[in-house]
Amino acid sequence: AGSALWGGRFASGPADALAALSKSTHFDWALAPYDIRGSQAHARVLHGAGLLSDDELAGMQKALDELAADVRSGAFVPEPGDEDVHTALERGLIERAGPDLGGKLRAGRSRNDQVATQFRMWLRDGTRRVADGVLDVVDALVAQAQAHPGAAMPGRTHLQHAQPVLLGHQLAAHAHALLRDVDRLRDWDRRSAYSPYGSGALAGSSLGLDPEAVAAELGFTGSSANSIDGTASRDFAAEAAFVLAMIGVDLSRLSEEVILWATAEFGYVTLDDAFSTGSSIMPQKKNPDVAELARGKSGRLVGNLTGLLTTLKGLPLAYNRDLQEDKEPLFDSVAQLELLLPAVAGMVATLTFHTDRLAELAPAGFTLATDIAEWLVRQGVPFRVAHEAAGGCVRAAEARDVGLEDLTDAELAAVHPALDPSVREVLTVEGSIASRNARGGTAGDRVAEQLADLRTEAAAA
Ligand code: ARG
C-alpha cells in the first residue's frame, strides 16, 4: 500500500482502479503549507501533553521546517503512491525525522480533523485575496463615478428608459452590491474561524491535547465546540461558495451593462484596447471579452455552489469520503475570481464614457413624465389625476414627435388647467435630477456624499 496511512489490517494493497479514484494529491497539494503549520502546532501540543520530549520536539520542528522549505522550493512533491496531501507529507516527515520520531506525530489526530482545519485555513486566506480583488473593482467604480460628476444618463427599468439619473449614481449602485459581498466574506470569516483540530476522526482526543492551543497558533478564534460537527460540517464551504457565486453574479450584472453600453446602439462607452479583443475575421471588431468572461464564469461559480450543496445533502454525520469532493469547487471559485477581478477592475478603470451621448439620451423616451406628475402633486393635484395628466402630455408630445419640453403653453393647459408654463422648471434633466434629493436619491449632492461614504467603507472593509 505504498505510503498509505492505514495498511495494518489489509492483506493486500488497493486495486489500481481504487487508488486512481481515491487519490487527491493533484488538487489537495494546495493544502500542503497549511498541513505543515498544523503539524507544527500539533507537535507542540503533543509536547505539552508529555508525549514528546524536549529533544523530540526540537527534532520534529527541524524536520517540519525542512519539509516546509522543500515543499516551497518544489524539492518535495507527492509521489504516485501518495493518496493525499496528508499521506505525502507524513512520508516526507518520516524521510527527514526517521520512522521512530516521524511516526509519533500522527497520535491524536486524523486526516478528518486535519483536512477540515486546513480547508478552513486555505479558504480564510483565499477569501481575503478575493475580497482585496473585489475592493479594487469598487475603487475603479467609485473613481469613474467621481471623474464624471453631473453626467446624466437614462436610468432604466425593464431596460426601458425610466427616469434620468447621474452616471455616478448608477456606478455606485454596483459598488454597493460588491461592498456587501466583501462584508459577507468578513462575516463568513467570523463564523468560520473555528478549528476542528483535536476532533480526531470524530470523537475527540484521549491524549490530553489542547485544541484551543492549536486553534490559537493557527490563527483561529477558537476550536470546534463539537468534534462530530468539527469533522462533518461543511456549511462553511457552502457558505463561502455562495458568497463567491454572488460576487460572480454581481460582476455579471455589471458586465452585462458594459456589454450593452459598448454597442453602437447604446454608444455609452468605449472599451480600452488593453481590455478588449479583436476578431480573427472581422477587422473592425472590438469585443468586450472581459465582461463576457465575467458573465460566463458566474455560471461556473453558481455550478460550484450547486454541486457542493448536492454532495452534502444526503450525508450522515460524521466524516464520509464524499467530503473529498468539497475542495475542488472552492479552489476553482477562488481561482476564477482571482483571474477575473483584476481584469474587471482594469476594464472599469479604463472605460471611456461618452457623456454627450449619455446626456442626449437622458431625457429621451419621455423620462421626465414623472417629474410633471410630481410637479402637479406639489400644486395640490391628487397623484391619480396628475399621473393621467402627465400621461396626456406624453401622448400629445408623441403625436407631434417632439419632447415633453417642446409642448406649447396651450397644449399643456389643454391637458390639465394646472399645467401653467412654470412646469417647465422640472422639464430639464438637471432639474429632475436635482429634485431627487432625499437620502439615496440621484441629486448631485446626495451622490457626492454617497461616493465619499463608499470610499470610507471600502477603505475600512
Ligand atoms: N483526502 C480526504 C479528504 O479530502 C481526507 C482523508 C480522509 N480519509 C479517510 N479515510 N478518513 O476529505
From TrEMBL:
**What sequence ranges are listed for the domain Argininosuccinate lyase C-terminal?**
366-434
The entry sums up its family as follows:
Belongs to the lyase 1 family. Argininosuccinate lyase subfamily.
Give the enzyme's EC designation: 4.3.2.1
Q: Where in the cell is it found?
A: Cytoplasm
Phylogenetic lineage: Bacteria, Bacillati, Actinomycetota, Actinomycetes, Pseudonocardiales
Fetch the Gene3D superfamilies from UniProt: Fumarase/aspartase (C-terminal domain), Fumarase/aspartase (Central domain), Fumarase/aspartase (N-terminal domain)
Q: Where is the Fumarate lyase N-terminal domain?
A: 13-303
* CDD domains to which the protein is assigned, alphabetical: Argininosuccinate_lyase
Organism name? Pseudonocardia saturnea
Q: Which UniProt keywords apply?
A: Amino-acid biosynthesis, Arginine biosynthesis, Cytoplasm, Lyase
In terms of one coarse class, where is the protein primarily found?
A: cytoplasm
In what pathway does it function? Amino-acid biosynthesis; L-arginine biosynthesis; L-arginine from L-ornithine and carbamoyl phosphate: step 3/3
* Gene name of the encoded protein: argH_2
Catalysed conversion reaction? 2-(N(omega)-L-arginino)succinate = fumarate + L-arginine
Query: What is this protein identified as?
Result: Argininosuccinate lyase
Named from the GO MF annotations, one term is: lyase activity
Which InterPro entries has this protein been placed in? Arg_succ_lyase_C, Argininosuccinate_lyase, Fumarase/histidase_N, Fumarate_lyase_CS, Fumarate_lyase_fam, Fumarate_lyase_N, L-Aspartase-like
